[in-house]
Amino acid sequence: MFYKDIQAEDYSTFRISLYNIAVPGRIRVPYFCDLEAKSDSNIVLVMDPAANPAATKRAWAHSGDSMPAKYHNGLPAYQRIQAVIRKRIDAGQLHPGDAVASERDLAKIHQVSLMTARHALASLEQEGIVERRRGIGTFVAAPKIHFNKLMSYTEQMSSRSLTAGAKVLFAKVLDNESEAAARLSLPPTSQVIKLERLRHAAGEPFALETCYLNAADFPGLLDAPLGRESLFGILERDYKIDLGYADEEVDATAADPRIADILSIPRRDPLLRIRQVIYSTKGQAIMYVLGFYRSDRHNLVIRRFR
């Protein structure tokens, strides 16, 4: 355990860094700390600015030295590095597949330790912003859609800074979709709307979705601009439906020849298959969706509670 006595009025979360300074004081802090190597010099305890910026500034004021650049504006260095990379991606200066500066280059550019630069890239990788290829480097990752909230596909794409598009492949009222009717709690021969759409962004196919709705509840739906607008938006605006929740079944499957051709992927490529029954806030089954999603463009985020 490393520690350095430091004088401060209050403290909460701590990080140990190495700098060419000495800090007087008598408060001993035997807490677990992260160790960042800056140089072979005295050890000084720096409060985490995110936890208590005012206390951090007071501690550095007691030392008689200026606060290091890595803590300016109360933002940890690794977050500043991440912000710069995100800004370049959002501005279109970096595109999916483009190389990101190496850990060593980032450390030099931002005047931080190699450990800090590595932490910044590792966190971005966990978020799906970049991908690290062993022995090659770090690259901007292709955007992935996260299924962790009841949203339309248009809303999901927008949350990843993508503009969703749709191509209607099939749209018709049928009376022989017994499975879809059962999912919607309807008699087997009920008339249901079948809407099959290819979902894409920037000319790249992402998913194939087939939606089923009770034709009696949604007259005129097939005349709506289903290739340009969100289906959720149309239901909420034109039919005054308050969508509430969904029951989902998720599994993996392989792309058959038709789906592979539609999604422009090799046959037998893995897909995420989601069967979804969407309900209104009143508990009425509104829509059954069968979706096939490219596994390299989607992931499922689940929060579990104990």
Can you offer a commentary on this structure?
The protein has 306 residues and is α+β, with helices and mostly antiparallel strands. It has 3 domains: 14-70, no CATH class; 77-140, Arc Repressor Mutant, subunit A (Orthogonal Bundle); 145-300, Chorismate lyase (3-Layer(aba) Sandwich), CATH 3.40.1410. Helices cover 24% and strands 30% of the residues. The chain has helices at 53-63, 77-90, 103-110, 114-126, 153-159, 178-183, 231-238, 257-263, and strands at 14-18, 35-36, 43-47, 99-100, 130-133, 137-140, 145-147, 165-174, 192-201, 204-214, 243-254, 270-280, 285-294, 298-300. The strands form 4 sheets. A 6-stranded antiparallel sheet has the order 8-9-10-13-12-11. Strands 2-1-3 form a 3-stranded mixed sheet. A hairpin with a 2-residue loop joins strand 9 (192-201) and strand 10. The longest helix is centred in the first third of the chain and has 14 residues, at 77-90. The protein starts with 13 loop residues before the first strand and ends in a 6-residue tail after the last strand. Residues 1-70 have low confidence and may be disordered.
Q: What's the short story on this structure?
A:
The protein has 306 residues and is an alpha+beta fold. The chain contains eight helices and 14 strands.
